[in-house]
Amino acid sequence: TANLPYPWQTQDIGTVGVTGSANYNGGTFGMTAGGADIQGTADAFRYVYAPATGNCTIIARVASEQNVNAWSKAGVMIRESLNTNAANAFVGLTPGNGTTWQYRSSTGGATTYNNTSGLNAPYWVKRVFSVKIVTVFRASDGVTWTQQGTATFTMVSTVYIGLALSSHDTSNLIP
User: Fold this and answer.
1) 3-class SS shares of the chain: helix, strand, coil, % to 5
2) Which of 172, 167, 175, 171 is nearest to 45 (CA)?
3) Whole-model pTM?
């Protein structure tokens, strides 16, 4: 993608209703997204991603998030593919329900999640993938991390890590 640094790419995953976008400026990614949700057996959201092999970590600061829906989501993710029903793990912020940790441990499987209410942007989120174990964290300062959850995965050798955004509303974009 011309406006993203190599090797980052972006696309909508699933049927989003309104096409999203992404840009990179001054060390910061900016995104807009539609999409019904990152949840259930299939997802619909905007993804900015890079391929990764082996153990990997991604950290992001969700600087702001508009309240299109209390369950709009912005955060970091690992996916085994770019298919809508791919196994994945996500930790992010919602404007009305705090941080959410969720995962689909098998292709087409159900999504398991929990959330910690009362936390709002700006907030930091981190996802670590090591020896088939995904662990996710949150922090108000990007230094003192609190574990949000962990799960065991068997993923393909090349995965996609990145930033995920869903408005939780197929008619409206979230900036």
Assistant:
1) 0, 55, 45
2) 167
3) 0.94
